[in-house]
Each structure stands twice: as structure tokens, then as C-alpha cells.
Amino acid sequence: MEAIVRSVPGVVFIRSDPNPDQNRTVFTFAGPGRSVQRAAFDLIRKAIETIDLTRHRGTHPRMGAMDVVPFVPLGTTTMEAASELARRLAEDVGAKLQLPVFLYEESATRAERRSLSDLRRAGFEGHLANGFPVGPPDFGPARPHPRAGSVAIGARFFIIALHVILDTNDLETAKTVASEIRESARGLAAVRALGLPLASQGLVQIAINILDYRVTSITKVMDRVREEARRLGTTVLESELIGVVPREALAGAVWDLLRLPPQRRERVIEDAVEKSGAFSFTERLAAATPTPGGGAAAARTGLHATSLLRMVTGLTLNRLKGDSKAGAAETLSAIHEETTDLSKKLRDLEIADVEAFENLLEANRSVRDSKGGAAVLAVTEGSVPAAARAATEVPIQMLQRFEQALQLAAKLLETARRYALSLRAGGDLGAAIEFLRAASRTASLNVQINLPQLDMPIAGEMRRTQERLEATIEETCDRLRAEVVRRYAPS
Asked: For a Cys-Cys bond, which of 83, 177, 237, 322 suits 155, CB 3.0-4.6 Å?
């Protein structure tokens, strides 16, 4: 199953959490909306093909082989955008996989369908025997799939899944603690809980969902569980988190422990730095400091170009799946791998350019500061050509990487011609070529500016290398741009 998620370009597989007692696994992955939607669809299809709920046994309630697919917005993504993705996935699953789909939480079409526990009521077996307790699904067949049941799909806020293991094998104790802490029994707000056996360890556990950590923190939940367990004559052995949790939720738990009121909680350095925006590349570039400068910007521009090449190649590869053009797929995969490697090298060159220029500034500063002593001057002046050479070698290395990137762009176009492929991303490919042209001219200018500080004959050798690379890159850019215009923007 993990391989399915990892195969989708743009998706980051974060982790899986299998549970042998519950006989279920939670997969966590992130990425651009469309990519995440595709990975979720492929996972659901695989679950339908491989999981037979008529043979499945586990302690956790479930209604489907792929039981629930939540979309949780990250960063600047809105809940509305996540809900729209959930709806598109639900429609595809219902129509293409013939699986009943219920929209839940923020995507729910009716109030009584928001809660996953209401949708799951009676479980797969009950739904198969008596139909769905909340009426027909939003998409797909009106009856459960005979082996895969149904699925709930929707957008929601972060839910923290917490399992707390008690030092007892008495299931009633776990059920009592769960009843005391869950919101529906007038326990903790925004908390759901079930007492479940943990047969593999001869113990019991409380499966807890914290629906909104801003309302009830992890600390408050754990304190209440310990209190109820103690009252019933047992203790908490350990706990485990399922999936991932937001940093803010863990910070909130620490604030509770420290008894810090909300107005005194702005104390996390990473949060302060990220919120300031001062350390983003654009802000560092705009700051009144010598570095990062044009060389780092050239490397970053080349990185944007290789990222675009990866995107175009990945899109083309996706359309080839199941196609008989095996040679094309093999070539495109190699291009994708090489552009990925180039991206890493350009990230390294961005850092190297900053370090090299700072070293050059420091060398020049040392010379100025040492003018009072000839002996010192003789030693320190020797460091300037060495630092200047290093500062010149970095943009030359950039030019070499830009030339490699253009060769890969040419190989991509040649593959498209040979196998009659439609790249369908002419603008993006053209942008990559133009980025590489701009990055190349910037790197060349940096070489030329640094050359007067170098000793001969190394200066002459570097100039010839720079001129040869720049001429090759300019010619290649002209040729590739003409082909892109001819293929994608004919007059």
C-alpha cells in the first residue's frame, strides 16, 4: 500500500501506523491537492481489490475496507478547498469504483452525516444486512459493496488519535474510563473514546480522538484518563499517537503543564521565525546585506527550471502508465531522476555561492585592516586571489549544471518526437528554458566581475571556460525555444 502512495509524483509519504489488534492501518501523506486526491483514489481501489471484510476481524468499528479518508488542510489551504477535493474524490470513487461514499464532517451534505460514528453505526455487517442507518450514500451504489462495504470521505480539522494502555486486562475498566472522558457522556469537550481489548499484550486500551486540541489539550485528556484509571484501581502504562500531530498541539500541552496563560505563550523560536517571514529566501535577498546576492538567485532560478522539467516529465510519465511505449517510460524515468539530482546540486550551489562570497569579503577586509604592517600584508594579500578563485568557481559550476539541465530538456523534446508524445506543458517547458538562460547570464556576469582579482593564467583559463559555456547555453536556449514555439505556439 505504501508503494502506491509513493508512486504518485508530488506526494510525500509521511508514515503508516498498523495495529494488529484492531487489524487496521492508518496511512498519512501530504502534497498538492490533486496529487493527494489521486493517491487516495489509488489506495481505495487497491483496498477494494485486496480486502474482504467478510473475512476481516478487528476490535475497531469499521464500515469499509478503506474506512475513512479525511482531507486536512495544511498551510494556506482553506477548508473550502479541502472540502472540494474531498467531494471530487467521492464522486470519482462512487462512479469509477462503484463504492458507496458518504461525505462527512465539513463536507457533509446533511447535519446528521457529519459524525463518522453515526455513519459507522452497526458497521459493515449491519449495513450489509439492514442497509445504511443514515439513508442512501452521497455517491455510488445504494447498497454496500459485498466485500468492501462503503467509505466516508470529507474535509476536517486535525484530529489527534491517541491510544492509552492501562495496566489491566479488564475490558470493563477501559470502557468505563472511555465513557467518563468522552463528550457524549458529559466528559471532556471535543473528545471521543472507546475501550478496546489489546489481545497481543494481554491488556486493554482506550482509543481516543481529540477532535479539537484548541478546546481540549492532550495534557487535559491524559490527566483525566489517569484520574479515572486511578479511581478504578489501575494506572496508565503508556500511550501512543496514531498518525501525526500539529506542533501547535504539542506546544499547547506544554503550556498546560507550565500553567502559562494564552497571553504568555509566544515563546517558541521556530514559530517566531516562521511568522516573521524574515528568513524566507526573498526576504533574505532583499535585506541590506551582501549575501545572498545575484549568484544565489541564479542558483535558485536554475532550481526553479529543474523543478519545472521534473514536473513536465512527471506529468508525461503519468499519462504513459499502462501504455505499451516502454522505451519512452524508461527514458522519461531517467530524465526525471537526473533532474531530481540536478535540483539537489543546485541547492548546494546556492549555499556554496553565499559562503564563497562571504569568504571573499572577509579576505578583502583582512587586507584593508592589515595595511599598517607590511609583513602581515604580504601574507593576507595572498588570501584574496584564493577566495576570488573559489567565488569564481561556484558560478562556473552553476553554468555546467545549467548546461546539463538544457541537455535534459533537449532529451525530453527528442523523446516526445520519437514516441509521438504530447507533453501538454509547452509553457512550463518554455519557462524552464528561459529561466536557465537568465540564470546562465547572471552566473556568467559574476564570473567576469571576479576575474580581475585572479592571478594569470588561471583567470584566462576561467574566462575561456565561462565564454564557452555561455555560448553553448545561449545557442541551446535559442534552439530549444524555437522548437517549443513551433510545437506549442504555432503562428
From this structure: 83
Asked if 263 and 377 sit in the same domain, the reply is no
- The pLDDT assigned to 377 comes to 34
Can you tell me whether residue 245 is helix, strand or coil? coil
Do 46 and 169 lie in one domain? The reply is no
pLDDT single digits (tens) 388-441: 999 999 999 999 999 999 999 999 999 999 998 888 788 999 999 999 999 999
Q: How many folded domains does the chain comprise?
A: 3
Q: Quick one: 199 and 340 in the same domain?
A: no
Write the CATH number for 183.
3.30.70.670
Question: In CATH, what number is assigned to the domain containing residue 358?
Answer: 1.20.120.680
The whole-angstrom separation of Cα 282 and Cα 292 is: 10
373 pLDDT band (50/70/90 cuts)? very low
Domain span holding position 55: 2-155
Shared-domain flag, residues 110 and 38: yes
Quick: pLDDT tens for 28-45.
999 989 889 999 999 999
Report the distance separating Cα 83 and Cα 73, nearest Å: 9
CATH value at residue 124: 3.30.990.10
CA trace torsion 259, 262, 267, 271 (10° rounding): 130
The helix, strand and coil proportions of the chain, stated in percent and rounded to the nearest 5, come to: 60, 10, 30
Alpha helices by DSSP H, listed for 277-425, are 281-286, 294-320, 326-369, 374-380, 383-418
Considering 60, 127, 145, 304, which one is annotated as catalytic?
60
For the question of residue 60 being annotated catalytic, the response is yes
Among 123, 155, 187, residue at a domain's last position: 155
Name the residue with higher pLDDT: 156 or 267. Answer: 156
**Whether residue 244 sits in one domain with residue 324:** no
Per-residue pLDDT band at 365 (split at 50, 70, 90):
confident
Q: Over range 323-327, report the average pLDDT.
A: 68
Assigned C-alpha cell, 254: 506544554
